[in-house]
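User: hey, got a sec? need Mitochondrial glutamate carrier 1 folded
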Amino acid sequence: MDLEDLSEEQRTVKLLRMNKGLITKQKVSSLPAKLINGGVAGLVGVTCVFPIDLAKTRLQNQRGSQRVYKNMMDCLIKTVRSEGYFGMYRGAAVNLTLVTPEKAIKLAANDFFRQRLSRGELKLSVFQEMLAGCGAGMCQVIVTTPMEMLKIQLQDAGRLVAQQRPMLHTVKLGTASPVLNCSYSVGPVSSTRKVSAIQITQELLRTKGIQGLYKGLGATLMRDIPFSVIYFPLFAHINQLGKTSEEDDVPFYWSFISGCVAGCTAAVAVSPCDVVKTRLQSLNKSANEDTYNGVLDCIRKIMRKEGPTAFLKGAGCRALVIAPLFGIAQVVYFIGVGEFLLGQTPFNLYSV
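Assistant: Yep! Here you go:
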């Protein structure tokens, strides 16, 4: 229907809706705004959930016969007692440095592939959404693999020290006396050699070249591609349920809920791949821990020695990490922090 055929009131409403549509298109097509949104979301999210991520890494790496931590809370309590409060943030600097490009690539790549696959259509099919997520997952591993590699070395250092500590305090009292195994509370470990991400990077580049930083690339792809294939379509459909009409935006709280639900679901679904990736990327192991010669060898040894339940180690922690992380990411992304900072669109918390 032409504008001339409408009443003045109807014409005004339609023009407002058209303008709103133009603003939305401008917001979607702004790459600098996307990068800012992804970076801010990553920084806020990682800062909030990093201690839980540390617990997840340590739980995934411990073997059945050498258990140091019973569960997530036990891991966090022992970490604070032995390494201090900041021990829970071992490896956080790596994540905070690299999470900005990682989240920016992930979110921006997904939007890019969605736009390319839509070909002017208003709605994508589920298969097209899955393809867009697959493309985003493949792009992000450029940054994700080295970031995870360095983070895991720093996060797992405290577990290895805690695992060896009881052996250091084994004392023999005479020939007739039994061996007393005493694990003393010695406070923060002063004998632990502090290793930085820069030192690990330099050593890997010196000994193995650039491929040293990409150890576990196959396992990372095996985790991140299915994650993105599940997460992005699921988020899009759950988020769509929050719309009251085609013209209205989704309220920020619904984007948060959608991000949490989709992130939690995808995280649990790919948790076995995350266990394999964590084991492959752990360079420092104790004397009794297995080494692995690739993804298949890792899967075989875990299945044979620890059983199928080992593939779900840290699944609860991972869900607790990913759910708020992606909830926060989507809120920042959909609120439009980047657009607000660049002066492109109004800063709006609620749908209007």
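Quick note: Confidence is low (pLDDT under 50) at residues 18-29, 167-192, 346-352. Let me know if you need anything else on Mitochondrial glutamate carrier 1.
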